[in-house]
Amino acid sequence: MVLVLQLLPLLLSKAHGDPGASLVGSPGDRVNLSCIGVSHPIRWTWAPSFPACKGLTKGRRPILWASSSGIPTVPPFQRFTGRLRSLDPGIRRLELLLSAGDSGTFFCKGRYENESRTVLHVLGDKAQCRDPGSKHGSKYPQVLIPLLGAGLVLGLGALGAVWWLRRRSPPHPLLPLPTFAPFVNAESQRHIEEEEEPKIPGNLDQEPVTTAVD
C-alpha cells in the first residue's frame, strides 16, 4: 500500500503531464528551468514555438543529458551551446541565457518516463518571422527588383543605340542582277540563219538580155 502511494504521483504525472511553469524574459536575461515532480531526471528536450523563424522543424530536440560522471552531456551544434548550464549534477535545475528565438517548451524527462515542462516566451519572438528593420518582409525582393529594373533599362538602351546607328548609316547600294544569254541550239541557230539569208534568182553578174524588135 505504501509503495502504491509513492508511485501514484508518478503515474498521474505520466498520464496527464505536469502543467509546469511559464517563464517570460527578454534577450540577455537569465532564467532558471526546474524539473518539478520528476525523480531521477535523465534528459532535457526543447520544442520551439516558432521553428520556421530559425529554419527548424517541429518537434522536440535533445539539449542536455545526465551523465554518470556528474558532467552533463550537451549535444554538439545545438543552439544553446555556451548559454545553457546545469546548476546541479542531477540536471534538476538549469540556467539559460536567453536569446531571440528561444521561445518554446522545455521538457524534463525522468527515468520512469515521467516528465515536467516549462513554457518559455522570449519577448520579441513572433509567429510572423520578419526582419525588425523591415516592414515589408524579406530584404531580397527589395534588392532584386532594382537590379532587374537596371538590367531592363540597360537592355533597352543598347537596343536603341543599335537602331540609331543603323538609321544614320547610308544604305548599301544594290548589286546589279546577273544577266544570262538565252541558250540556243546550234542546229536551230543554223536553220534560223538560212531562213534569214535572202534568195536572189540567177547570177548577179549576168547582163540583162534585150530583144530587138524589127
Tags for this model:
3-stranded antiparallel beta sheet; 26% helix; 5-stranded mixed beta sheet; Immunoglobulin-like; 214 residues; rod-shaped; alpha+beta
Detailed description of the structure:
With 214 residues, the chain is an alpha+beta fold. The protein is built from three helices and eight strands. It has a domain at 13-122: Immunoglobulins (Immunoglobulin-like, Sandwich), CATH 2.60.40. The protein has helices at residues 2-16, 140-168, 186-196, and strands spanning 21-25, 30-34, 41-48, 61-65, 84-86, 93-97, 104-110, 115-122. The chain has a five-stranded mixed β-sheet with strand order 1-8-7-3-4, with no helix packed on it. It has a three-stranded antiparallel β-sheet with strand order 2-6-5, with no helix packed on it. Strand 7 (104-110) and strand 8 form a beta hairpin. The protein starts with a helix and ends in an 18-residue tail after the last helix.
